[in-house]
């Protein structure tokens, strides 16, 4: 697929999702809901991932297939320009992509970091899990592995044009540097009560080449424990990875907190010690073994998507009240 085509998809998807975001109700999970697949995903575009994952489950595919299908869709659409090859380029003008996937029942995991030119990093991460004896591959090695496994790549000349445009814009003092970032993180409790998760991002716009964020780091951007629950992060990765945030959220759920309480406690815990306090820019989502879900954000209204009882919606939490 050409990167121009990816970009067009991205713009169309973003426009339609902005509408659903504007009306997102503030909501918490309903503990009386019927059992069945439950999903939660970051940002309004997460709803597309939830719906695609539900379709995959309906077609008889596994929970892990559902996670991969949901995230692949967002990688193709480019979300709001921050997932997949339509995502934000690094300081040298190329998108370097991060992704990981975790399989609760087998405790399997696969991850790629700083990978260039591969359309579906989530599939590369899954291949690392399924077809190698490793958990994480980075940079050139991740790209080589993905190509060896026949994964889709792009016309490099497309990327060169994008790079030139990016570098020219960065050098132009009149143009504000493009920053920003988002991540698709999708968590699922399937009908068998097993947990799965995955995430994918182009990471922080304008990042240094070689910078890897929290998203592909197990226990930072994503953690799945089939006994307890799953948690995912979005926001500035540097503010997440130092605290092993998603591992800690899962451990707090193990101690009896609800997903929402655990996400909020993690924001407070980081804000209490981090020099940035509540200006951290981190958001968390979590889902437990009972199908309860919740989220918290440090410094912003955080919209996210939920799928349960056969329907999906975009909801939101406000920034946690500061202590
Ligand atoms: C990163 N955590 O690379 C990702 C970016 C993100 O909302 O999630 N932004 O730092």
Question: Could you characterize what this model shows?
Answer:
It is a single chain. The protein has an eight-stranded mixed sheet. The protein has a four-stranded antiparallel sheet with strand order 7-8-9-10, covered by helices on one side. It is of the alpha+beta class. The chain has one domain: Glutamine Phosphoribosylpyrophosphate, subunit 1, domain 1 (4-Layer Sandwich). Helices cover 35% and strands 23% of the residues. Bound molecules: N-hydroxy-L-asparagine. N-hydroxy-L-asparagine (SD4) binds at residues 181-183, 201, 203-204, 213-215, 234-237.
Highlighted features:
323 residues; alpha+beta; Glutamine Phosphoribosylpyrophosphate, subunit 1, domain 1; eight-stranded mixed beta sheet; disordered N terminus; binds N-hydroxy-L-asparagine
């Amino acid at each position: 697929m050409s990167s121009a085509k990816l970009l067009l998809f991205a713009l169309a998807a973003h426009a339609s999702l902005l509408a659903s975001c504007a009306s997102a109700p503030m909501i918490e999970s309903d503990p009386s809901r019927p059992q069945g697949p439950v999903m939660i995903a970051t940002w309004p575009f997460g709803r597309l991932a939830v719906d695609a994952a539900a379709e995959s489950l309906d077609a008889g595919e596994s929970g892990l297939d559902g996670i991969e299908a949901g995230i692949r869709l967002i990688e193709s659409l480019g979300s709001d320009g921050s997932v997949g090859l339509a995502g934000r380029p690094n300081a040298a003008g190329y998108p370097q992509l991060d992704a990981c996937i975790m399989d609760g029942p087998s405790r399997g995991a696969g991850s790629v970091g700083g990978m260039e030119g591969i359309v579906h990093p989530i599939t590369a991460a899954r291949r690392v899990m399924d077809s190698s004896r490793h958990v994480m591959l980075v940079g050139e090695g991740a790209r080589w592995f993905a190509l060896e496994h026949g994964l889709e790549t792009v016309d490099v000349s497309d990327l060169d044009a994008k790079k030139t445009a990016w570098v020219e814009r960065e050098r132009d003092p009149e143009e504000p540097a493009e920053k920003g970032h988002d991540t698709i993180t999708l968590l699922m409790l399937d009908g068998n009560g097993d947990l799965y998760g995955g995430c994918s991002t182009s990471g922080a716009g304008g990042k240094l080449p070689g910078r890897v964020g929290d998203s592909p780091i197990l226990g930072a951007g994503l953690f799945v424990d089939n006994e307890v629950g799953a948690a995912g992060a979005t926001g500035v990765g540097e503010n997440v990875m130092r605290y092993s945030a998603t591992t800690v959220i899962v451990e707090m759920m193990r101690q009896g907190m609800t997903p929402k309480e655990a996400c909020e406690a993690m924001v407070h815990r980081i804000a209490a010690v981090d020099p940035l306090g509540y200006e951290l820019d981190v958001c968390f989502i979590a889902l437990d073994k009972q199908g309860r879900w919740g989220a918290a954000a440090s410094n912003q209204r955080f919209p996210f998507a939920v799928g349960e009882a056969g329907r999906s919606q975009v909801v939101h939490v406000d920034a946690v009240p500061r202590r």
